[in-house]
Amino acid sequence: MAPTRARSPSPVPPASLPPLYKKAKHAPNLSPDVSALNFTPDLFDSSNTSRLRKEYLASEPFKHVVVSSLVQDALLRRVKDECVERLSFTEKETDIYKVHQTGDLASLSYLSQSQIEQLPSLLTLRDALYSPPFRQFLRDVTGCGPLSGTKQDMSVNSYKKGCHLLNHDDVIGTRRVSYILYLPYPIEDGWKEEWGGSLELYPTVKVPGAELPEPSALPSKIIPPAWNQFIFFEVQPNKSFHSVGEAIVGTPEDGRDRLSISGWFHSAQEDEEGYEPPTQPAEKSSREQLFAPGTDPFIPYSDSIPPPLPGTPLSDAHIAELKLYLNPVYLKTHILGGLASRFADESSVELHTFLRDELADELEAGLRERDALDGLGAKRGFIISKHDAGLGEGRWDVKGPPHKHRYCVLSPPSGDPPSTRTPEMILRELKEKLFPSDAFRAWLASVTSLLPLSQTTEVRRFRPGLDYTLATAEQSESRLDVVLDLTPGEGPEEGVEIGWESGAWGGWECYMAPHEGEEDPAVYRSSNKKAAPPLPTKAKSTNGDADMNAQADQSDEEDEDGTLLVAQPGFNRLLLVLRDEGVMHFVKYVSASAKGSRYDVCGEWQVGQVEEEDEEEA
Q1: Higher confidence at residue 38 or residue 112?
Q2: Which portions of the chain have biased composition (kind: Low complexity) (predicted)?
Q3: Using CA atoms, how far apart are residues 402 and 188, in angstroms rounded to an integer?
């Protein structure tokens, strides 16, 4: 599983076309009668526009409109058949999404006549959507101002089983209106809500101390896909937060696919009527906000206790305290020396069976039972988890904001403790007594040869089908990450590692090197599939196709060099990583197919280094 940079398709002539067609651009048909012929009757009538305008203004959690039937049904059925039978899709996976997608449909303008003849309905639909009447229709409903007819930005997306799109606000460049047209099938029976793939809309709240409004951790409106349904809204910075829930069907065998055409209308471009040059800096997108400083406070160690010097053996008192929690093998001097050598070479180390056996066994059994009681365990089947699953009852709270992360944290203790020890009690003890202790600080100094200065620790629970963190980076200093993974495993099935170990359920911890000059540097693809041409069709390959695939292979190999570390979930494993400034880090979205939650105790340390005296000065 090697995440690499995801590249946005550009509306340039596909390299597979003969030189004759590289500069021969098909002129889009933007005449008014295009819309009249291809959209549903009365779509542009003033009474319909007025009704939709009222719905738009009254809609929550942000202004949007759902048009139940947009395109003539016969046309849309032909479009669907062309997409399924004649287009190829590339699987793309990043920290924020997994989807099968074509290139930008603006590339249709560069197809040869023979290629156009394979996609006539798709070309007709694209021209109709960007025609003056339809752009005026969008303006009348949203009040968004002039829209470009030349800057076309759309693609066909197939959300097969496991595909998803996490929370974001769509703010990039000149995007003005976001839209999605659904073509899910089977058509006659309709797409069922329990199959997933719904559009989720999030309200925003003002958080004390936060510069900008943030989306709530849970959506307030969920819109299931429907055939010929068209949803659109004006792109609003820090307001239009939405996501697409995971599709839990869509395999070659089951004949179901959440197919859609989505994209953006951009504001009028230079040389277009209504163009206005920008008068102020662009608003910060939700992705850019991932690089803002964190809000969790670091707790410094007491000045009354001397800091542990790297290389100093653990004291008897430290060993006695750590024996309550750690596997005794990790307290032996020669083992610590070997780990320190490895960490010095690799800046990371992963330790298995870290906790002592009795504590680990009790905790694993308790976490399995907790998932079962919350309806998130192995017996629940492959279903969509409710957003409030596992919350409440004084055990777990959800933590957002979801455009940065969503997972559960331990609720503050309240009332009398239970008569029997719960897994939450053990996790809280690890968080409050082990990780911040002076003994564990000395142990970290021994293994990393660093000086821990302050720390912040939390217990995290990533529920299947719901939780994740998006790629973030600390821009000012290095940090020591300490993650005690406590995810109950499933083991091998028919001789093959499944689930967590294979990466099929997500939840992996990923570290990526920074890339200079990227417009959206936090987005990465973790699929090992090769990039496809912008608009490949299922026609016979040509020499030009082979050349383009070679270029794609080369670019993917270059991108894969950005992966520094990927650690799959597992039970009772400790991961230590020295994260340099600028290095990006995320926990991949946990799939609805996972047979339980991903648990960990996660700490972050501000660290220093002890300067060695120069021998000549000593």
Answers
A1: 38
A2: 529-540
A3: 35
